[in-house]
């Protein structure tokens, strides 16, 4: 136990959160369903939703407070809700030197606190964020365009799950060696050699979290909590269009750290205007030893090449494919795919983009279906799912930014290929100003060079390609090649043929992408569950890291040994 | 269990080595003394030493055989024993394309074998190497200059320990997730969602081991076995002056792999003449995803900067310091330091270089000792330890290469500063042609700029500096600064003062170097024991990796998940 553990607030936190930590540690090896954070909005009290809305409304137009964080007097604003409401939140700005200096000053106390104290403090941060899940849901909704239900789950409890998972892994990694061990080496007839050895996990330095536009909390929490729980101060640089969810996170973290007797500057916010190059500046600072990044391949590659003083964990772009060979549940397959393509307007890094369908057709429980029949039926399934505007809006959310909107416009104009399903403008009853579009389905042929140019690159957003391929084998081969060349966060397949399944599994293992097979119910290729599914593999160009495994955490600290004669 | 596990040879290996693997896995968390490989030469049978000598003699002047490895007909030779005997071994040469191609071809079968099979095969390789420890000892002795006793232990059982440790960590890491798990998520009144999930560890690609001149096996085995046990084919590029020990290792590995039904080209040798740039060529090949390197800072830095497609694990140069503040066992301290500085002529990356002694003197159980008295007494302790040529040769070994010899010549000439102890030419009774030198002790002052230039850089070999410093506090501060700026593999201290000890521990934790405190017996600052001590920390410029921890192994494979409805 370290000195920090005797602080009364800390001692209470350790005791209070021990059962959750123990359970989380067990969950990492069991891989069954588990979460301490309920995903049903009603679990957060009768007035939870109204309270969250009120708290969010109170933030609108305000100056965000981060007491004690360095500030240069400037204010940063500019977030605009994809739902058309005015956010008007402005954030205190600080220069790089001041932020780095504050984090460095805060570093030693947290480094000395040890794994148990740090885990307890992190769990308290997560518990307080959890209690405010409705407020976070509004913040996520109005920065990312996610519909409220998704913003609540993915931006709230599911993001908290991923944060907790990182804390659990950090605790496991840092406590693999005993704090103290005796070493006795026999020396034949002479007295044995005896030593006492202490093993101390030491953090590596400052951590930088570079947030993304679409999932600021879900993609941000793994790195944030992995770094913090291993003792590294964290500078949070949010996406300029999705600052609020991470600003709230930083605010809660600072509040808990201060109460526990630590310097709140262990977690600072680097809010910036769109177009700022602060991320490039911070990424190559010698003090910065860890970087977590989610976003474009271009900047991810830049970070990997240039931030040589740091360990860089990236999640970049990819092209996700689905092989459609055969199924014993045709309706279930169509419904599952329709939902996968529609959820959050395909703006997930895990959304399937290319549906690979043999020209010879697909065997189903409803008989053989030609390529065209499958395409027509899938288009109809999507249309059916999204026929009602209110329901459509609740699934689609809103288009997050002009880049995505541009692609739906190009798809609608036939630029990517023949349309099997044209995107439709949806009017959200609740937010008439929101930009909501249904997915486009584009027909392409794997053997036509022009078509290949269209579907073999990432086309992020509500545009998917129904790709005619020679055979199931060609589909599997194309999936593998796409993963190796473009990267992929997910792969999926539908087949009742053992040989096709075996080829698909072998290809996914070799190309390094995780595979969802024959999903026809309430689990979707684009969703992963913390403590059970890994998000990404780190084994293909889409990402060099996975949430969460030992590799994601093990290098964020080092072990220093002190030994002496017993 | 994978298909490979049913191969009769493999099945037998799994059964035979299971107890060792289980015990090794336990040892990684207990950190007590443990080894399955006896370190006493006599444990290897009555005729062990003679058999080893005969096997080594049979290699002299021979063409080394690596059946089935690509070869272009050229032969590589050029090793010369620091003991003056002619080695004359020549090794088959192959071009880079052929080697990479052979490793790639071998890759899939080993990738599919799974962690259990790979661990068993690796343990068999180690067991066969262990049985030939005397032969390896000769090979290590006559390439590195280590004395036979040290070449036997450090090049044999202790190196095997480090290899086994890596295999144990690899097994632990790859089996943290279950092979298969059920996932059941309650859905209120509806049926729960249920999934079956498989987790498959997949290797990342080809591994390159770049060996060093002084400890080809001890520094080579951790990376070799960590990569191989996680499923990656390994190309072994030995130091041109220390090829034989790794060539024998490759030969044994290939033999075991072939017997177990695998392609022996999973482990290949890239023997090269001195001056070859093959390491640079190999290091940036796109197929190479893992690099383990021990050697100069210059090339280590080059690898870290240029081999961007690979994970690079380096152990480079450093400057190790000892703070001498006070002791309750003056004679024990002197004897311990004398041995530390003399062992293998200071040619260990862990040998103390700078002994930091307050100008105000050192409190001891024999009363206060002035700086000059400590220096004189230490010089006398070294002279006493090495007064007999035979005994001296058995401790010092031989000077490994002309670079090291040059430094002892410069030290003898007073180039580094005033000599407190001049290096002495020792004639080895057994090998009169061997180049053997006792350590030089150079007096310097921490506050004189010219002196600082001499001792603040690495001076690899039998040259140590007795550095006069203002106070114990100044010594601790200088140790910390040296670690941060130059890197260090070890730190040591002598003090009976609680405040000095606390400052020393705090400084070592912050600078990221492991500390040996008050060593006065048979444990030396330059020695670490596998399964108990970590070698290096990865937290300072001397190395980015440690033998062995989770971080050394966790990123050598990735996990791919396959999930489906139950």
Automatic annotation (TrEMBL), chains A, B:
SUPFAM superfamilies: ALDH-like (SSF53720). One of its GO terms (molecular function) is L-glutamate gamma-semialdehyde dehydrogenase activity. It holds the Pfam family Aldedh. Residues 93-480 form the Aldehyde dehydrogenase domain. Gene3D superfamilies: Aldehyde Dehydrogenase, Chain A, domain 1, Aldehyde Dehydrogenase, Chain A, domain 2. Keywords: NAD, Oxidoreductase. GO terms for cellular component: cytoplasmic side of plasma membrane. GO terms for biological process: L-proline catabolic process to L-glutamate. Coiled coil: none annotated. PANTHER family: DELTA-1-PYRROLINE-5-CARBOXYLATE DEHYDROGENASE 1, ISOFORM A-RELATED, DELTA-1-PYRROLINE-5-CARBOXYLATE DEHYDROGENASE 2, ISOFORM A-RELATED. This is Phenylacetic acid degradation protein paaN.
């Amino acid at each position: 136990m370290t000195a920090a553990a005797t602080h009364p607030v800390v001692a209470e936190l350790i005791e209070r959160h021990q059962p959750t930590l123990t359970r989380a540690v067990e969950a990492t090896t069991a891989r069954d369903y588990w979460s301490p954070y309920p995903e049903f909005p009603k679990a957060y009290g009768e007035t939870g939703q109204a309270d969250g809305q009120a708290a969010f409304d109170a933030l609108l137009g305000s100056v965000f407070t981060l007491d004690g964080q360095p500030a240069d007097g400037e204010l940063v604003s500019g977030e605009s809700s994809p739902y058309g409401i005015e956010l008007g939140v402005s954030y205190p700005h600080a220069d790089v030197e001041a932020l780095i200096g504050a984090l460095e000053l805060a570093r030693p106390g947290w480094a000395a606190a040890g794994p148990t104290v740090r885990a307890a403090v992190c769990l308290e941060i997560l518990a307080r964020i959890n209690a405010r899940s409705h407020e976070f849901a509004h913040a996520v909704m109005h920065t990312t365009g996610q519909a409220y239900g998704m913003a609540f789950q993915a931006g709230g409890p599911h993001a908290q799950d991923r944060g907790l998972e990182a804390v659990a892994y950090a605790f496991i990694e840092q406590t693999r060696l005993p704090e103290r061990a005796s070493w006795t080496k026999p020396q034949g007839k002479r007295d044995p050699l005896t030593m006492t050895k202490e093993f101390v996990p030491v953090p590596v330095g400052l951590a930088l979290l570079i947030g993304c536009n679409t999932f600021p909390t879900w993609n941000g929490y793994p790195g944030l909590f992995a770094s913090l729980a291993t003792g590294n101060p964290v500078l949070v640089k949010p996406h300029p269009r999705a600052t609020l969810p991470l600003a709230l996170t930083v605010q809660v973290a600072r509040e808990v750290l201060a109460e526990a007797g630590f310097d709140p500057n262990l977690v600072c916010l680097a809010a910036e205007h769109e177009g700022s190059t602060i991320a490039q500046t911070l990424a190559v600072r010698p003090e910065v030893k860890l970087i977590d990044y989610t976003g474009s391949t271009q900047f991810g590659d830049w970070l990997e090449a240039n931030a040589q003083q740091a360990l860089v964990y990236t999640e970049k772009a990819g092209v996700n494919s689905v092989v459609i060979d055969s199924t014993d549940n045709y309706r279930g397959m169509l419904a599952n795919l329709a939902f996968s393509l529609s959820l959050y307007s395909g703006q997930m890094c895990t959304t399937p983009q290319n549906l690979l369908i043999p020209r010879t057709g697909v065997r189903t429980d409803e008989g053989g279906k030609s390529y065209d029949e499958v395409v027509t039926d899938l288009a109809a399934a999507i249309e059916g799912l999204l026929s009602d505007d209110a329901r459509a809006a609740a699934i689609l959310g809103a288009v997050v930014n002009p880049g995505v909107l541009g692609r739906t416009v190009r798809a609608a104009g036939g630029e990517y290929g023949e349309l099997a399903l044209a995107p439709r403008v949806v009017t959200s009853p609740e937010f008439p100003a929101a930009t909501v579009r249904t997915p486009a389905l584009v027909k392409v042929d794997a053997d036509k060079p022009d078509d290949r140019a269209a579907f073999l690159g990432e086309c992020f957003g509500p545009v998917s390609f129904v790709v005619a391929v020679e055979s199931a084998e060609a589909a599997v081969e194309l999936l593998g090649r796409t993963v190796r060349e473009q990267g992929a966060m997910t792969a999926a397949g539908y087949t009742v043929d053992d040989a096709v399944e075996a080829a698909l599994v072998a290809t996914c293992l070799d190309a390094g992408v995780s595979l969802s097979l024959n999903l026809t119910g309430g689990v979707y290729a684009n969703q992963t569950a913390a403590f059970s599914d890994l998000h990404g593999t780190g084994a293909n160009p889409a990402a060099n890291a996975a949430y969460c495994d030992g590799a994601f955490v093990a290098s964020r600290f080092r072990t220093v040994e002190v030994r002496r004669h017993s």
